[in-house]
Amino acid sequence: MDSAPVYTLAEGVPCASAVTAQHFGGNGIKGLMLLQDTQLIETLAHFSRERIPERVVHAQAVGAWGEFEVTHDISDYTDAKFLNGIGKKSKVLLRISTVGSERGGSDTVRDVRGWGMKIFTEEGNHDWVFNSIPVFFVRDPIKFPSLNRSHKRHPATNLTDPSMFWDFHNNSQEGIHALMLLFSDRGTPKSVRHLNAYSGHTYKLTKEDGSFYYVKVHIKTDQGVQNLTNNEAVDMAGKNPGFHTADLRDAIARGDYPSWTIYFQIMTPEQAESYRWNIFDMTKIWPHSDYPLVPVGKLTLNRNPSNYFVDIEQAAFSPSNMVPGWAPSADPILQARMFAYNDAARYRLGVNYQQLPCNRAVSPVYCPYQRDGFMSFTDNYGGDPSYVTSDLKSVRFVGMTGANGHAIGGHEEWVGEVVGFTSCLVEDDFAQARVFWDVLGTQEGQQQHLAYNVACHLNGAIPRVQAKALEMFGRVHPEVAVMIREEICKI
Ligand code: HEM
C-alpha cells in the first residue's frame, strides 16, 4: 500500500518497527534495555506526559463544529459584523459539558450543562460561555470556588457529599432558583441536542455612535427540550456513561444536524434603571412577558471533531473574547469571569494557547506585544518591534479603546463610569529631568559626560530615531540637545 504513511519517530526519522526494543545480550527475553533506544525512551517519556491539567470545572464534555447564521436584522442594536447581514454565516466550535465531574464522568449525571461556543468572526473570536439554565447559584464571584468545591469531592473521603452540597446552598440561598432548575428534570437532559442555553448574564449590544442596549441571550433547541427522569439518568450513567457523546456524534455522522434558534432579550439603559430586578444580579431572569424574545439567528452543528484532544480538550473559551458591537455589563460575576478563563487557559494550555488550531482566529491577528513564551507556532512577528509606540514600523489602530461600550453619559453615572485611559505627556514631565540637568551643571564636567555618553549610544541609531531623541532632550533644555549633537559630530 503505497499511500500508507511511513512510520517515523517524532522528528521524522523512519523506523523499521514500532514494537521492537533494543535488548542487551542477543535474542530471547531478557530485560536489560539500552539508553540508546531512542524509540523506546521517547515512547515511554511521551506517554507519561500525555495528560494536561483538566479544567477545574466543566472537565467532561462533548463537542462539535458548526455554523452560526444571521436570520433576522438586528442592526438597530449592534454593529457587530457577525450579527449583521441576513444569511451571513460564521464558523463555530461548540463544547457542551457537565460541571462537577472530572474528565471521564458520566454524561447523564444531574448537573448544569456548560455551553462553550466560539464564533470565528471577521472581527476576531467571539465566545459565548453560557449554561443550560438562565440563572446562577451565586451573585458574588468570591463564592464561586466554594460553590464548586461543595459540589465536588469531600477533602477527607474523596466522595461527593450531600451534606457539603446542601450546607453550601443552605447558606447561599440567593441561588434557590438555580437550585430548583437543577433538581427539575432539566438537570438530567436526554441529550445535548435537547437542551437550551442561556447567557444568564446581561451583556451590552453597542453601536459606534456610543449608544447601547442591554441584552440577554437565549439559545433554544430546535429538537425540543427533552429530559430523562432521575431513574433513567442514573440507569444510563451506569449502562452507557458516554451516552450524550455518542448521541451527538452519531446524529452528526448520519447527517441529522442538530440546530438551535438564537434569541435576544433587549432592554434600554433607561428601562434598566427602573426595572424591578437588578439586571446585574445573575440569580434573576427577565420574564419574557416583560422582555419578549427577539429572533436573531440559527446555530447548526454539522461536523464531528476529527480528534477530541486537538479540537475539544485544547479549546479555550472566555467571556472576555468579544468583538466590537458587544460589551460586558457591570455584572460582578461576569467581571470576575473576564479574568478567570484566560488565566485558566494559560495554566492549562500554556501562554500561546490562542495559536492552537482550535482557538486560532480566522481573521488576521497582529499582536506583536504578546510574543515568545512556551510553544510559539507562528513566525512570532519576525523582527517587528516588540514594544509599543514605535516609529520603526507603522501599525494601524482601529475600533474603540478598552472602554468599549462604556463611553457615554448619564446612565453610566447610574452604573459607575468606566473610561479608556492613556496618560498624556505634559511639559511638567520634563521638569524633574531639567532639575537633574541643573544638578549635573554644578558638578565639573558631568553635563559633558552625559552628552558624550548619550552620543556614543545614539550615534548607532538610524537618522530619524536620532532626530526624535534629540528633540526629546531639547524639551529638557535646548542646551542638552545641542551638546549631544556636538558630541555626535565629533565621533
Ligand atoms: C465567578 C464565576 C465563575 C468563575 C470564576 C468561573 C471560572 C471558570 C473556570 C476557571 C473554568 C475552566 C476554564 C478552563 O480551564 O478553560 C470555567 C469553565 C466554564 N464555565 Fe465558568 N466560571 C464562573 C461562572 C460561570 C457561569 C455563570 C457560567 C455560565 C453562564 C459559566 C460557564 C462555564 C462554561 C460553559 C465552562 C466550560 C468552558 C469550556 O467548555 O471550556 N461559568 N469557568
From TrEMBL:
- Tell me which residues this entry annotates as catalytic: 58, 131
UniProt GO molecular function: catalase activity; heme binding; metal ion binding
Sorted alphabetically, which PROSITE patterns does this protein's record hold? CATALASE_3
- UniProt binding sites for heme: 341
The prosthetic group or cofactor this protein requires is: heme
Task: Write the protein's name.
Answer: Catalase core domain-containing protein
Q: Which InterPro entries match?
A: Catalase (IPR018028), Catalase_clade1/3 (IPR024711), Catalase_core (IPR011614), Catalase_immune_responsive (IPR010582), Catalase_sf (IPR020835)
Would I find Translocase among this entry's keywords? no
Domain (Catalase core): residue spans on this chain: 8-396
Q: Which GO terms describe its cellular component?
A: mitochondrion; peroxisome
Query: Which function does this protein serve?
Result: Catalyzes the degradation of hydrogen peroxide (H(2)O(2)) generated by peroxisomal oxidases to water and oxygen, thereby protecting cells from the toxic effects of hydrogen peroxide.
- Superkingdom to which the source organism belongs: Eukaryota
PANTHER family given for it? CATALASE, CATALASE 2
Q: Please cite one Gene Ontology biological process associated with this protein.
A: hydrogen peroxide catabolic process
Family membership noted in the UniProt record? Belongs to the catalase family.
Keywords in UniProt for this one?
Heme, Hydrogen peroxide, Iron, Metal-binding, Oxidoreductase, Peroxidase
